[in-house]
Here is the input.
Amino acid sequence: MTIETASIGILHKAVDKLADGYRHLPAHTPEYDQQRAEQILLQVAEKMWDNYPYPHPQYAGQMLKPPHPVARMAYMLATWINPNNHALDGGKASSAMEKEAVAKIATMYGWNNFLGHLTGGGTLANLEALWVANQIHPGKTVLASSQAHYTHNRICGVLQIPFSPVAVDDQARMDLTDLEKQLQQRDVGTVVVTLGTTGVGSVDPLPEILTLQAQYGFRIHIDSAYGGYYTLADNLTAPVRAAYDAIHRADSIVVDPHKHGLQPYGCGCVLFRDPQVGQYYKHDSPYTYFSSDELHLGEISLECSRAGAAAVALWATLEMFPLVHKGDFASDLSRCREAALELYSRLKNDNRFITPLSPDLDIVIWAPKAATTREISRLSQQTFEQAEAQHLYLATFSFPSHLISKAFPEVTVDSEYTTCVRSCLMKPEHAAWGSRIWLMLDQIQNRLT
Ligand SMILES: *Cc1c(COP(=O)(O)O)cnc(C)c1O
Here is the structure.
């Protein structure tokens, strides 16, 4: 694998440019032991070898996507100043960039008048959304599908809100019958609708959930931490497209620029349709230095200090890749999905494998075929290990066995869950590497014991 280094030259020019803005100050250069720092940095480089090669197309496992060089450079450039987007006094330029970048994400969903900001990640973003939901409907139950991110159950524990999981249908999407049953039985304040579950990428049926909302009245929170940008793709199936087209009717949305949005970690985003929810964030900390009437992002965020660098990186990325249909970023997403569909179709047409779900987005779940779910689990684990030995990096996923037997009645269920193989094909390059990856999977399958 080669590591991209042209960005270092560009970054150097940008750092010089940054310095131009501060030449009016008396000279001051921080001193440090450069030799020692170099030694340590080389040691760090060596320690980093003990990571899987996430940026390489043969890494086709967990939900990991490399940041774009422009994001990496902008992030590093900003750290020379290290702004804090809590208050304008700590990060004036980067706060302005955050407001612009967040507005672009909101526009992608058709929202112009909204409240939103970046967060450290999807967990914090979801926590804020559920915290606001509970301010509006205190003590009422939060529902999310059993395939939703585990964070919702845990956040509800932290916030002491009642939580109940909703069953999923055979496509691992929220089951509408169970949802309606729970709406009748419980005092539900909020339904979390996942547009792209983290495990299998299934997209909950938002239009039908909106119909139930008209009858039962509840808030809708969209957790699209992983799948949010997919609204730009042009190769979604009709039900998935319909779910994305209805996002603007939700009350809040979470999307993680650090998942599919080409950002380094530390960049989530929460959006509220009603800007009035800003009132719940009000505080008057004596430490905080809100020196002007303009909006300080710390006034509408639960986190205090936040990396201005994350906002700068996102702003730079959106300059290069506007969030528009048919744009470069949109077609890269479509290519990720194409890669997933191609792998899915190879697996589905080969009777050595089982494929319990057709992918809604770019995650493929499959397993070597066997007579029992336990045997399938054993072979999936072996596939994972043998692939790694050949430098093909996959992931495993614990899938409810009853969904496997629904799709493959000939398989005997002798375990509650079945380990399957999971691939997040989140890099557009995966489309070109499909044949190569398939060749490796084919050989691994033939050698399973
Ligand atoms: C990743 C993810 C989260 C958690 O977000 P982090 O950025 O990992 O904190 C929540 N929900 C979904 C659907 C996710 O994919």
Remarks:
- Residues 121-123, 126, 149, 151, 194, 198, 223, 225-226, 256, 259, 268 surround pyridoxal-5'-phosphate (CB under 6 Å).
- The two ends are 31 Å apart (CA to CA).
